[in-house]
Write a structure and sequence with these properties.
The structure holds two protein chains of two kinds. Chain A contains 15 helices and two strands. By secondary structure, chain A is mainly alpha-helical. Chain A has two domains: 38 residues; 246 residues, MetI-like (MetI-like fold). In chain A, a hairpin with an 8-residue loop joins strand 1 and strand 2. The longest helix of chain A is centred in the N-terminal third of the chain and has 36 residues. Chain B is of the alpha/beta class. Chain B has two domains: 177 residues, D-Maltodextrin-Binding Protein, domain 2 (3-Layer(aba) Sandwich), CATH 3.40.190; 220 residues, D-Maltodextrin-Binding Protein, domain 2. Classes of the chains: A mainly alpha, B alpha/beta. Chains A and B meet through helix 3 and helix 14 of A and helix 1, helix 3, helix 4, helix 18 and helix 19 of B. Chain B: It comes from Planotetraspora thailandica. Chain B: This is Sugar ABC transporter substrate-binding protein.
Chain lengths: 321, 459
């Protein structure tokens, strides 16, 4: 409640229940807590405890089996940043790939979904059907789809077959699109974009439908061409949505590893290794080495990066408003 | 209104109590009538099926029921064991990777010490090179990092008993494709150079489906299964081990090291298209489907190929052949324990669990499992081997004998840094071949850097 509201309705403050409840209010009070308690308990166990435990683990060495942890202070963080001659270069390389994904996926998602949404918004017939079709990748996305993409991208997969049948055999990849170091990461980026476009398009579409049609009409009367309407009217009004889409894309790029695990496992030769996959590998692919702590430290570094980006995003949104 | 409140309150309390009761209940199997029931986890589906089948035989002999669950793949198995260790939900028996995972789990307190149970008579049943598998040695303790759980273990403790055995670096060749390429389908190549010639012939006959498949998505496979046996035969045991030594005076970038890398890189034209995108099982399946003429795996691959429709009599097997330019002119593989059986520290049925492991590693039990799983046991089956395993799988055992100098022992990790990680050199080897991003000389220099950093971490 804002301070203005309080000033306008001072009487409301008097009507608030006192902090000391009389016994006749207990049933209502208890009912409220009884309903809230499961969720609070669940969050306390699954949320607060695991977050706290994860943070503590980032300052320790542990293989997941021993009853005690070995405390190492901030060494895990230092190892990742520069101290460990094996981990630090690995982090830098994976960080470089993650950065490429962080930049390319949101940009391409916006570049594809905004025109798509504008086109969908401008038609009347078949809009619902087309919207459903464009939303299909989101409904079907997941591990199974990543496997399906692998088959499509194989040396004898559908894409190479199509390219050869169209006389574009020089564009076909004899080792498959995921087997060539030059095409592996760009291919994964395109699949990530393919997964992200449906939601972004829907967000843009809902944003477009919320814009007052009089604005378009006024712009047209003033002689604005469609491209000018897009640039001068639609784009500024959709900036908050764009910021949200970019933030979602960046967040996915920072944390996501499933597609990299399923489709390339960081290969070929480490060319698609990303930070999320590195954290997963440190936790579960290091045999039983005591790397759960360093994996957790990497997770917290990613979290810090995500928080920074979220703050930046919030600042941008405020400025836009 | 009050009545409504009471009803709502009652419903909420019932919900909370119900959830609490549900949370407390479940888990663990109820034992009926005092009958003993064991639970076991393995990371191999093939083994779980075989073990569940032979469990009936074990029950008829001992009255003990056993239920075996497969938890796959390996990383899921490890994370499930980690979770179960924290929640007290471990089974009675675990099948784990031998040669490291068993020791790590034992030193971490998850597996019991079986030193007092496994007597000499029990050990004598096992293949000689697998008898001490699962036993903590003083050298492993000394080499471990100061904060390793190994430091809390004692030399001589036994955390597992060898269950399956075998070797890596076994080549499988499709006899039909060999014949089609004009090669003798019954005579394996004697040298690395002859092997390359055979690959040249099969890829010449069929460019797309005449090559070599290997699951290079798991990058260390090429490094472990092909390069290391090849380099061992090329340089001899001592010189091979010096490649990994601290200081890299005779490391991978030395003239000898570069020659081994150059020999390995000659495979470049013959890889199956897209092999870098295949996992280990996928590469085997590709071979079974006729998409490649050669496949590299281990002795355990034969069963998997059979499962995927490749009849063993259609396959010619041989170990990675030694180079004619190298020191050793013949190659043999020391059979190492691939998996071991351990009793968890939380079991209430220790005696029954030990009895189950005892039976599984007896000729009778091991034979029954081997027959079902077509996987070589660590138990010496002696003359029964051929009848139980079939002639093709039993024939693989002939590569287990050879002179100590020429025998490649993948279980010998004494010359590696204690924090040795195969993925880094594995990735580099993929960049050498098939990607050709680095030359043998560059790969040698990079490998020395990688080993150097691992030694630094070990310090």
């Amino acid at each position: 409640m804002s301070s203005l509201a309080v000033k306008d309705h001072p009487g409301r403050l008097d009507k608030r229940p006192s902090r000391t409840r009389s016994p006749r209010h207990w049933p209502g009070w208890l009912t409220g807590w009884a309903f809230v308690l499961p969720a609070v308990a669940l969050f306390a166990v699954m949320g607060v405890y695991t977050i706290g435990s994860g943070l503590a683990l980032s300052f320790a060495k542990w293989n997941g089996f021993t009853p005690t942890w070995t405390w190492v202070g901030v060494q895990n963080y230092l190892d990742l940043l520069y101290a460990d001659p094996v981990l630090a270069p690995e982090l830098r390389r994976a960080g470089g790939h993650t950065l490429q994904v962080m930049i390319a996926v949101p940009l391409l998602t916006v570049a594809i979904s905004l025109p798509l949404a504008v086109a969908l918004n401008s038609i009347r017939r078949l809009r619902a059907i087309l919207r459903s079709i464009y939303f299909l990748p989101y409904v079907t996305t997941g591990i199974a789809v990543y496997f399906a993409w692998r088959y499509v991208l194989e040396p004898d997969g559908a894409i190479n077959t199509l390219l050869r049948s169209l006389g574009l055999g020089t564009l076909a990849q004899p080792q498959g699109f995921l087997g060539n170091p030059d095409t592996a990461l760009p291919t994964l980026i395109l699949i990530l974009v393919w997964s992200a476009v449906p939601v972004a398009t829907l967000l843009y579409l809902s944003g477009l439908q919320a814009i007052d049609p009089n604005l378009f009409e006024a712009a047209q009367i003033d002689g604005a061409a469609p491209r000018h309407v897009l640039r001068r009217v639609i784009w500024p009004l959709l900036r908050p949505i764009t910021a949200a889409i970019v933030l979602l894309g960046v967040r996915d790029a920072l944390h996501g590893f499933q597609i990299f695990l399923v489709m390339t496992r960081g290969g070929p030769g480490g060319h698609t290794d990303v930070l999320g996959l590195m954290a997963y590998r440190l936790a579960f692919f290091k045999g039983l080495a005591q790397t759960l702590g360093v994996s957790s430290a990497l997770g917290w570094m990613l979290f810090a990066g995500a928080v920074l980006l979220a703050l930046l995003n919030a600042r941008m949104l405020r400025r836009v408003r | 209104m009050r009545a409504a409140h009471r009803r709502a309150l009652g419903a909420a309390v019932a919900l909370v109590v119900g959830m609490a009761v549900a949370g407390c209940g479940g888990g663990g199997e109820q034992q009926q009538g005092g009958a003993q029931t064991l639970t076991m986890w393995t990371f191999k589906k093939l083994h779980a099926d075989a073990l569940n089948k032979v469990a009936a035989q074990f029950k008829s002999e001992t009255g003990i029921s056993v239920t075996v669950e497969a938890v796959t793949p390996d990383d899921v198995f490890v994370s499930k064991v980690q979770s179960a260790a924290q929640t007290g939900g471990l089974p009675d028996v675990l099948e784990v990777h031998a040669g490291g995972e068993d020791l790590e789990m034992g030193a971490s307190g998850l597996l019991q010490d079986l030193q007092g149970d496994v007597n000499d008579a029990w050990k004598q049943r096992l293949l000689p090179t697998t008898r001490e598998s699962g036993v903590m040695t003083q050298q492993r303790i000394d080499d471990a990092a100061s904060d390793s759980p190994f430091k809390s273990a004692k030399a001589g403790q036994r955390f597992s008993v060898g269950f399956t055995a075998g070797a890596f670096g076994i080549v499988y060749a499709n006899k039909d494709k060999l014949k089609a390429a004009g090669l003798d389908p019954d005579t394996p190549p004697k040298t690395w150079e002859e092997f390359l010639d055979a690959l040249k012939a099969t890829t010449g006959k069929d460019t797309k489906e005449g090559g070599l498949s290997l699951g290079l998505k798991v990058s260390q496979t090429g490094y472990n299964w092909i390069y290391q046996p090849l380099a061992h035969a090329y340089l001899g045991k001592d010189r091979f081990q010096a490649l990994f030594a601290k200081g890299a005076a005779q490391g991978f970038a030395s003239p000898d090291g570069v020659r081994t890398l150059e020999a390995f890189s000659r495979l470049t034209p013959y890889w199956m298209p897209g092999t870098t995108t295949l996992g280990i099982d996928e590469a085997d399946i590709a071979f079974a489907q006729g998409k490649s003429a050669f496949d590299v795996g281990g002795t355990f691959t034969m069963a998997f190929l059979g499962q995927n429709g490749m009849s063993p009599d259609k396959v010619l097997t041989f170990p990675i052949p030694p180079s004619a330019e190298g020191v050793n002119k013949e190659i043999s593989m020391a059979p190492l324990a691939l998996t071991g059986l351990g009793v968890t520290s939380t079991t209430d049925n220790r005696a029954a669990a030990v009895k189950w492991i005892d039976w599984l590693t007896s000729p009778e039990g091991a034979g029954a499992v081997a027959k079902e799983s077509l996987d070589l046991p660590a138990t010496d089956l002696g003359t029964q081997a051929e009848s139980l395993l079939g002639p093709d799988l039993a024939a693989l055992q002939k590569y287990f004998t050879g002179s100590p100098d020429s025998m490649y022992d993948a279980a010998d990790v004494s010359f590696f840094p204690s924090d040795y990680d195969q993925v880094k050199p594995g990735d580099l080897m993929v960049r050498l071949t098939p990607l050709q991003e680095v030359s043998p000389q560059q790969a040698g220099t990079e490998l020395d850097k990688i080993m150097g950093s691992m030694w630094k971490v070990t310090e």
